[in-house]
TrEMBL record:
Belongs to the IlvD/Edd family. NCBIfam families: PRK06131.1, PRK13016.1, PRK13017.1. PROSITE patterns: ILVD_EDD_1. Residues 49-361 form the Dihydroxy-acid/6-phosphogluconate dehydratase N-terminal domain. Pfam families: ILV_EDD_C, ILVD_EDD_N. Keywords: Iron, Iron-sulfur, Lyase, Metal-binding. The keyword Lyase applies. It comes from Ancylobacter aquaticus. The lineage of its organism: Bacteria, Pseudomonadati, Pseudomonadota, Alphaproteobacteria, Hyphomicrobiales. This is Dihydroxyacid dehydratase. Transmembrane segments: none annotated. GO terms for molecular function: hydro-lyase activity; iron-sulfur cluster binding; metal ion binding.
Length: 583
């Protein structure tokens, strides 16, 4: 048992947060109780029972959470079985599909709503229902700051896509077939069929994209029931897991098992290890840094690079792997099975929501298919999923996913072809007269946290049509944006500081040589320092994107990519802790 578990102070009905709202003989409590009765509840429903807030990210705008509207009933069933009082709280859905300009712009807004929603309501413990990319970090960041016991309920991956018997993966196959379509190799009928087959059920993207990565991270952090992240959304086991979350959170309230006891540095190191072994989305870096800072744990880019050098990619799931998807990963044993192969790299004594340690949770877990979850001696990629590069183009770092790019590009020098905005890049790559060779380094700037704004997932810059027609399927690409976890290719991302705030990427010009050396972890523009100084002096600061509203606040408080892109005032180190609201 983790040492922290022994320090627990058990809650009693009198010391519940909700008792302050409901248990007193005063006008305030009278008002709250009368309003519970207005909803048809009686004292038998609430007296002496923990109020479990079920934070539901269901929305018609979020296909990945389509099942949450009914799945919440399973959670309520579990809460009732364990003697709690379930109340549902709808929160921001963070739909990856429909939020523009990018869901990342709204991750922190969602996290604020979640933190304040938990704090302001009479919630003793929270079930966090999420899964689509940004919803997971938003829920965990908010709940960490709110500080009440919380358990994460991952949406689960959708079923495998299918087109004429061919397995389709979210994102990855869309990009792949789109390149084919642009090259004239796929007709409209086939394209239409693919559109109908690529997303066959509710649940989040079933490749190893940001969603699968972040839910696995929640699992590895100890914030979910063991292995919950691997259960497909449409599997009956998902309903059973949801009910079990409901039962467990009630006990967590009595045990006062708050996130701070689970989210320690060893837990974050476990999450990084698992992320690497999964061949994770590059977005994981930003979200994990932000989550760690909420927990007061200092995690940085170098922690990822260090882990990437010793943890092999053993989850053979697309896009790092070639064949399998999350459903296959589940049948191969899921996350506990994967972790059973990484015990040398994991802190097995880390406490989890079960009240037991990670090691206890995964004891006896077995891999059922050695091709889907490889042994560490037979990985799909010997070094980890990510590499952090630094140099005169990115003094604070940038990242690349070597496992997803053509090997000959890992050490490459080529002339830059620079674009200041996405529309001009898009127009240029479709121009078959574009002066470009496979040796060029395609560059997009003004696409970072402030410049995007919101650091859109533009980082898998489209290959020039001319090269695609020549059969080129990868080239070096460089930007201060992010890329979807289902993307692939030699894409260097998250250049920090970003060009919009005057980072050195702003000084690069078309024709300058860019040298990338992944084994040496370097990225440089081969331009003399005096010339860079001249260019720096001539830089004109860009106009602000927003003059009012949320964007205005975002612009003033967003951190850079290497710091996790949280708002400065939301980090734990900012100011005194927020106390309980007066009732
Ligand atoms: Fe929701 Fe991919 S769109 S997880
Ligand atoms: Mg995504």
């Amino acid at each position: 048992m983790n040492a922290n578990a022994k320090t627990e102070t058990r809650k009693t009905p009198d010391t519940l947060r909700s008792a302050r709202y409901f248990a007193h003989d005063d006008l305030r409590s009278f008002g709250h109780r009368s309003r519970l009765r207005q909803m048809g509840y009686a004292p038998e429903d609430w007296v002496g029972k923990p109020v479990i807030g079920i934070l539901n990210t269901w929305s018609d705008f979020n296909p990945c959470h389509g099942h949450f509207r009914s799945r919440v009933e399973d959670v309520k069933r579990g809460v009732l079985q364990a003697g709690g009082f379930p109340l549902e709280l709808p929160v921001h859905s963070a739909s990856e599909t429909f939020l523009k300009p990018t869901s990342m712009l709204y991750r922190n807004m969602a996290a604020m709503e979640i933190e304040e929603g938990i704090r302001a309501h009479p919630i003793d413990g929270a079930v966090l229902m999420g899964g689509c990319d940004k919803s997971t970090p938003a829920l965990l960041m908010g709940a960490t700051s709110a500080g009440v016991p919380a358990i994460y309920l991952p949406a689960g991956p959708m079923l495998r896509g299918n087109w004429k018997g061919r397995t389709l993966g979210s994102g990855s196959d869309a990009w792949k077939f789109w390149d084919e379509r642009r090259a004239g190799l796929i007709d409209e009928k086939a394209w239409n069929e693919i559109e109908g087959g690529i997303a066959r059920s509710f649940g989040h993207c079933m490749t190893m994209g940001t969603a699968s990565t972040m839910t696995a991270i929640a699992d590895a952090l100890g914030m979910t029931l063991p292995g919950a992240s691997s259960i497909p959304a449409a599997d009956a086991g998902h309903n059973r897991m949801a009910a079990a979350c409901g039962r467990r959170i009630v006990d967590m309230v009595w045990e006062d098992l708050v996130p701070a006891r689970i989210l320690t540095r060893p837990a974050f190191e476990n999450a990084i290890t698992v992320a690497m072994a999964m061949g994770c989305s590059t977005n994981a870096i930003i979200h994990l840094i932000a989550q760690a800072r909420r927990a007061g744990v200092d995690i940085g880019l170098d922690d990822f690079d260090r882990a990437s050098r010793i943890v092999p990619v053993i989850a053979n799931v697309r896009p790092s792997g070639e064949t399998y998807l999350m459903e296959d990963f589940f049948f191969a044993g899921g996350l506990p099975a994967l972790m059973s192969r990484l015990t040398d790299h994991l802190h097995l004594d880390a406490l989890t929501v079960t009240g037991r340690t990670l090691g206890e949770n995964i004891a006896g877990a077995k891999v059922h298919d050695d091709d889907v979850i490889r042994t560490v001696d037979n990985p799909i990629y010997a070094e980890g999923a990510l590499a952090v590069l630094r140099g005169n183009l990115a003094p604070e770092g940038c990242v690349i996913k070597p496992s997803a790019c053509a090997p000959h590009l890992l050490a490459h020098t080529g002339p830059a072809l620079v674009f200041d905005d996405y529309p001009s890049l898009k127009a240029a790559v479709d121009d078959e007269g574009l002066d470009v060779t496979p040796d060029h380094v395609l560059v997009l700037r003004n696409a970072g946290p402030l410049g995007g704004p919101g650091m859109p997932e533009w980082g898998m810059l489209p290959l020039p049509k001319k090269l695609v027609k020549q059969g080129v399927r990868d080239m070096l690409r460089l930007s201060d944006s992010r890329m979807s976890g289902t993307s692939y290719g030699a894409c260097i991302l998250h250049v920090s500081p970003e060009s919009y705030v005057g980072g050195p990427l702003a000084l690069l010009r078309t024709g300058d040589l860019v040298r990338v050396d992944v084994p040496a972890r370097r990225i440089d523009m081969l331009v003399a320092e005096e010339e860079l100084e001249r260019r720096r002096a001539a830089l004109i600061p860009p106009l602000p994107h927003y003059e009012r509203g949320y964007g205005w606040m975002f612009s003033r408080h967003i951190r850079q990519a290497h710091e996790g892109c949280d708002f400065d005032f939301l980090e734990t180190s900012f100011g005194a802790p927020v106390g309980e609201p007066s009732i």
